Amino acid sequence: MITFLLVMLLVITLLLIEIPVAFAFGIGALLFSFFTDNNISFLIPHGFNTASGFALLALPLFVLAGTLMAVGGISERLLDFVSSIVGRIKGGLGAVTVITCALFGAISGSSSAAIAAIGQIMIPRMVKEGYPEGHATALVACSSVLALLIPPSIPMIVFSITGGLSVGAAFLSTIIPGILLTIVYCALNFWFLRKNESISVESKMCFNEASRNVIKSGYRASFALLMPILILGVIYSGIATPTEAAAIAVIYAIPVGLYVYKGLSLKSLGSATVRSVVITGSILAVLFFLFIMSRAMLMEQIPKQLAEFLLQLSDNKYVILLLINLLLLLIGMIVDDISGSVLAAVIFLPVITQLGIHPIHFAAIVGVNLGLGNVSPPCAPMLYMAGGVSKLPLDKYITPTLKFLVLGHLPMVMLVTFIPEISLYLPQKIMGIQ
């Protein structure tokens, strides 16, 4: 256990000095294997075998589908559709940003893709309409993590595969938290801007004109809105596995981008494919070393020792859940959502099982908590990415970010943690999870 803690301290130090995540965990895995006398020639094939599993093939396919739809002009159609509904009231553009990030998450499954596709359009538009730059940046950063909760979520795929859980059930567990957090962020946006007189409001339309505008923009966005329905429909109807659904998403995205929205060309199709390969390669490099480390940890019974340690601190499962949430938050602050999902499955899932907490409930806790960590300093990868889009210094958007997190995201973490029905209702009703 001491060796594990020292190795993790080294990994954290490497991450804080901005060593790439894959290299940091690679060094950690090699050192941990060496000091615990684990045979690295056994661990490396395990890493390859796990990373090349059929279920994990959903990861590159969903990345490719999301990239194709982003390049193909889907974000603009989604923005226009949501804007036609709520964009003409004071603070409406902020609500458009939040809702569109959630919808885009249902297509890409990636928070960074949401920032790239939505943030580059909405931050300048909000600033032009009188929104404070810091508020606009914070709203995009916080809303981007909705992509982790609205399926198909790439971190949930990785968490489920690592923990041996149903991917479909894990998808369902975060839908209600994702919808609730979307509503909370919209409400906070309106509340924070209620006294801001600098925000301009678009001219009002009569009811008939507004209705025609909604119908028109909804028709244009129909192929984009159909994609998540198609993906989830084939999964929960039993027609296809999540991996096969990801392949269907790619097959669907190409003709829609080429011939319907016409934002995709043969040249951009090639560049989008290359970009997806690069993203997938970087993710799989991280996962490969994490799988090696996780196997070595299991062989050294680190999860069992951690469970015994936590149970010695308290036999109250709510106290232990608070401690685990704190540790998950720290993990989310340091590493990306996918790496955090693997660590959560390997380190904490055995503890959760011993406490009698449903693993699908824990999947929702992990999704909501890691999203909070990804926009919480000091590392906060999604927060800094949004800042890179707006080109603002951190001090300009850190205060509004903390307001959104403390008043919105943190209470949602507590609700999901201590009210299991929020995350278990849909898996129980749709998939019969007990």
Structural account:
This protein has 434 residues and is an all-alpha fold. It has one domain (2-431). Helices cover 79% and strands 0% of the residues. The protein has 22 helices and no strands. It has helices at 2-16, 21-35, 40-51, 58-71, 74-86, 92-108, 111-128, 133-144, 154-163, 167-173, 175-192, 207-220, 222-236, 242-260, 266-299, 302-313, 317-334, 337-355, 359-374, 381-390, 394-418, 421-431. Helix 4 (58-71) packs antiparallel against helix 15 (266-299), helix 6 packs antiparallel against helix 11 (175-192) and helix 15 runs parallel beside helix 18. The longest helix is centred in the middle third of the chain and has 34 residues, at 266-299. The relative contact order is 0.15. The mean pLDDT is 81.
